[in-house]
Amino acid sequence: MTKTSTCIYHSLVMSWYIFLNYYISQSGGERQKSKLFQNGGQWKYLTLLNLLLQAVFYGVTCLDDVLKRVTRKKDVKFITAFRDLLFTTLAFPISTFVFLSFWALYLYDRELVYPKILDGIFPGWLNHAMHTSIWPLSLVELFLRPHHYLSKMKGLTLLAVSSLAYIGRVLWIYSETGTWVYPVFAKLSPVGLAVFFSLSYILTASIYLLGEKLNHLKWGHSDADSGTQVPQEENPTHKSYQAQKGAKVPPG
């Protein structure tokens, strides 16, 4: 059964992301927002899509917590599986990618990703809420409880489909409006764009594999059939290996 402290933590984080989504929709004047969100609306930005994703994920997580406490079961099959799918293939990789890519480009030349004019629309704390705190919150969730990862093929395929869907939207917006979602894209040639998108997926896939590795190191062996985490000291394969390793070979 889920701990009360874990339930409270998840409800607080969910409330935080709901607040951010609402605050952003109300930030700045109507004229400023209409100019910023024209040609695709606010959902053309990966940062804002990620905030919505995090709100949905923590909403599912809270539902999972509540159902476990009500039913007193360790797992609520569909909800728990959906929670883990959201976190492993989307919530953790995308939040980490947004954090790394945003600050790398911002430190190189902020005009490529977050023009100074946005300081008049979004206060400084909101910039960090959108681009900084998302990563430590994902790390806390990773180490707070075990998450079942799909096979690498399935997980990376789902991640690729999500990446292609967003890239397709970016290209569609440009084809319809002649305007790029982010200024950095306007600086790149078609080949440069292909390289940029390819490297972005490689980075995101690496983050996915890193999350899987950290989950394994923290929680032990993942049982792909049951979707449960088996600590290494309770893993029969691990025990057998240790027994063989420690066994003495009789003299011939």
Model description:
The chain has 252 residues and is mostly helical. It is built from 10 helices and 2 strands. Strand 1 and strand 2 form a beta hairpin. Helix 1 runs antiparallel to helix 3 and helix 3 runs antiparallel to helix 4. It is globular, with a radius of gyration of 21 Å. It starts with a helix and ends in a 6-residue tail after the last helix. The C terminus is likely disordered.
Note the topology:
Elements: H1 4-26, H2 30-36, H3 46-71, H4 77-109, H5 124-131, H6 134-144, H7 152-177, H8 183-186, H9 190-219, E1 221-223, E2 228-230, H10 236-246
Antiparallel strand pairs: 1-2
Spell out the key features of this protein.
252 residues, mainly alpha, two-stranded antiparallel ribbon, globular
| Beta-strand residue fraction | under 5%
Number of continuous helical runs: 10
Q: Judging from the principal axes of the Cα atoms, what is the shape?
A: globular
**Helix share, percent:** over 70%
Runs with pLDDT <50, length 5+?
223-228, 230-245, 247-252
- Classify the secondary structure makeup into a structural class: mainly alpha
Order of helices and strands: HHHHHHHHHEEH
How would you state the average pLDDT, rounded? Answer: 86
How does the major sheet shape up?
Answer: 2 strands, antiparallel
- Straight-line distance between termini: 53 Å
- The largest sheet has its strands arranged as 1-2
Compute the CA-based radius of gyration: 21 Å
Q: Give the tally of β-strands.
A: 2
